[in-house]
């Protein structure tokens, strides 16, 4: 059974990059006689709005994207995320952190950390041994304890698409690489008790997703999701990362950078056929 999903966030209007991902995923589902789920990733309550969510449905329907069952809305799944977080707490794999971005920058610029690139904000483990209460704080995954718990140095997944550096096929990542690139990453924010990483990992399991189709800008966060899948006893889906649609300057299309919306293109008379042609579909 082939099950995939399209998961937009209602923080703005959909643009050509979203259209490409949605249509490409639907094509994959159709070719494999599968199921396409729609997920609304609306846990960012400060930026998500009902109006943007309604427009997502209108744009997808206009594009001809058809999804099965009722869309999953992350804002209605918080209790499930909290339960998954509790499993990690019970395993002793997390800790509370009250560091701000400013605190992390200061720690990374200290004399004994000169090798770190301050701009990456790789978390240096400042709160790892403080035993701070979890309530009212961000919660981070302790990668050292995680590696010992899993009794392996490596995590693996299958890539049927292509990563940003032409990665494809069976992928193996060293957990030490994960720590060097991200440090002990946040799996639950202090305000909503989850994070993008934890929520999408749980959602994919809840929706029984077998193939994750998404932009290859997310390729290098896939090891984060795989390690959470292993810890929560979820099956790891196959990943199909695809190239991004870029503007004339070679930059990724983004809502925050004023990418032209599907709605604007519709209003200016652009047809679905023309959009498919622009996207190479």
Descriptive report:
With 281 residues, the chain is an alpha/beta fold. It is 36% helix and 16% strand. It has a three-stranded parallel β-sheet. α7 (196-206) crosses α8 (222-231). The longest helix has 16 residues, at 16-31. Mean pLDDT is 91; it is low at 111-119.
What does the secondary structure layout of this molecule look like, with pairings?
Elements: E1 3-6, H1 16-31, E2 35-40, H2 50-63, E3 72-73, H3 78-90, E4 94-97, H4 101-108, E5 138-141, H5 143-150, E6 154-159, E7 169-174, H6 175-182, E8 186-188, H7 196-206, E9 211-215, H8 222-231, E10 238-242, H9 262-267, H10 272-279
Parallel strand pairs: 1-2, 2-3, 9-10
Antiparallel strand pairs: 4-5, 5-8, 6-7
Features:
281 residues; 10 strands; globular; alpha/beta
Radius of gyration: 20 Å
Gross morphology is globular
Largest sheet: 3 strands, parallel
DSSP summary: helix tally: 10
Please provide the count of β strands: 10
Low-confidence stretches are 111-119
Distance between the termini: 24 Å
**Approximate helicity band:** 25-40%
The structural class is alpha/beta
- The strands making up the biggest β-sheet line up spatially as 1-2-3
What is the H/E string? EHEHEHEHEHEEHEHEHEHH
Percent of residues in beta strands:
15-25%
Let me know the average pLDDT: 91
